[in-house]
Design a protein that fits this description.
single chain; mainly alpha
Length: about 400
């Protein structure tokens, strides 16, 4: 069970790292992004190295009993350093670099202490699951265990307080992400505290190893899940909101595109529909098709019809946006009839065929589509507007 929790936690953290990696490649000199990626990468490494099968593999390949322990503790300490650097960059201020450097040097000293105490100690019996409690009273090895646990507890405590304090000052996705991150760090504190209590009990001759082998892995796994979700929420939520807005805008333009569909097909004005595209790409494709059709209909646009419809609707409703949309709808319907009529030729008289108004912007296109959808009644257009000629007529 412990192995499953470890590997799932590692996978979740490295999935978060994979999501953030493209941002890091684009902004590789951003210390904040580097700190986030370091937190996710090192936290995942801690779970990977702490899994019993990985522990056995490292010990077997190295030929050193329990070598996996100091390696795991060093990874945990590196994670602690990255967490502190991340908190420093969150807070900002004039001494960000200096403070981050101090935390890094402090935890580098902890890593050195772990290496020295392991080298001085003696841990001949391999313990894949309960090393912390088994060797809690062993000279130097016990000090190594206490050193990494206190370093970890310090880091997650500072991270919890900083994240939750900042979450009270912001709103939206950032607040949700910080709250989750703080909760994940709090679970990390539960991991350290459970192990410290188990180690302390061992010092007094009691056997509370269940806290070490059962409680702490669950706390660590839950903390990893909350941390990765907390890091991803501020990144994912804005994108999802943008995709949702694009999808709604794409669907809203459907009635207008369907009105122009015959023209788009006959004149081959529609670009191939993109496959596996995002809502934003599909929206751009639909807008491009509509603009292609409207550009083709420019030669048939009736400025008088536009002005009459605009004035009538404005007088009736007092809404200039609705009036503009209805006027465009009337001109589009009239131009489609003229363009599709057999023998129709574009007008050649001076001033005729001018676009009735500047090309509609996205907001205007959406309102025109609402008219064709029936949300607003489309005005009737004359069959043959003024200033037009057809083949065989004078």
């Amino acid at each position: 069970m412990n192995s499953l929790i470890n590997y799932l936690s590692c996978g979740a953290l490295w999935l978060g790292l994979a999501v953030k990696a493209p941002d890091l490649l684009r902004h590789r000199h951003d210390p904040y992004l580097r700190a986030i990626c370091a937190v996710l990468g090192l936290a995942g490494l801690c779970f990977l190295l702490g899994a019993p099968p990985t522990v056995g593999a490292v010990n077997r390949l190295s030929g050193v009993p329990n070598l996996a322990a100091p390696l795991t503790y060093a990874a945990i300490t590196g994670y602690c350093a990255a967490s502190q650097v991340l908190v420093v960059h969150w807070r900002g201020g004039p001494r960000v670099r200096r403070t981050a450097r101090r935390w890094t040097l402090a935890y580098a000293a902890v890593v050195l202490g772990i290496a020295v105490t392991f080298a001085l100690g003696d841990a001949p019996v391999e313990r894949r699951v309960d090393l912390d409690t088994y060797y809690a009273t062993t000279p130097f090895i016990g000090q190594m265990i206490l050193l990494y646990l206190l370093a970890h507890l310090t880091a997650v405590t500072v991270t919890t307080v900083s994240a939750l304090r900042w979450a009270r000052q912001v709103r939206g996705a950032l607040r949700a992400g910080l709250t989750l991150l703080g909760a994940g760090a709090l679970c990390g504190a539960g991991y350290s505290l459970a192990k410290l209590v188990a180690v302390s009990a061992r010092w007094s001759g009691r056997d509370w190893s269940a806290l070490d082998t059962a409680v702490s892995p669950v706390a660590a796994g839950l903390g990893a899940l909350l941390i990765v979700v907390g890091v991803l929420v501020p990144l994912v939520v804005p994108r999802v909101s943008e995709w949702r807005r694009a999808a709604r805008a794409y669907a809203r333009l459907g009635p207008l595109e369907r009105t122009l569909d015959d023209l788009l097909v006959r004149r081959a004005l529609r670009l191939p529909r993109p496959r596996f595209a995002s809502p934003a790409t599909l929206l751009m494709w639909r807008r491009t098709s509509i603009h292609n059709a409207l550009g083709h209909l420019d030669a048939y646009g009736d400025r008088d019809l536009y002005d009459r419809t605009l004035a009538d609707t404005l007088a009736a409703t007092g809404d200039p946006e609705l009036a503009g949309a209805r006027a465009w709808a009337a001109v589009i319907l009239d131009a489609l009839r003229q363009e599709a009529a057999p023998g129709t030729v574009p007008p050649r008289v001076p001033g005729a065929g001018r676009p009735p108004a500047p090309s509609p912007d996205p907001a205007t296109l959406a309102r025109i589509a609402d008219v064709f959808a029936g949300a607003e009644r489309a005005p009737a257009a004359s069959a043959v507007p003024r200033g037009r000629t057809t083949a065989g007529t004078a």
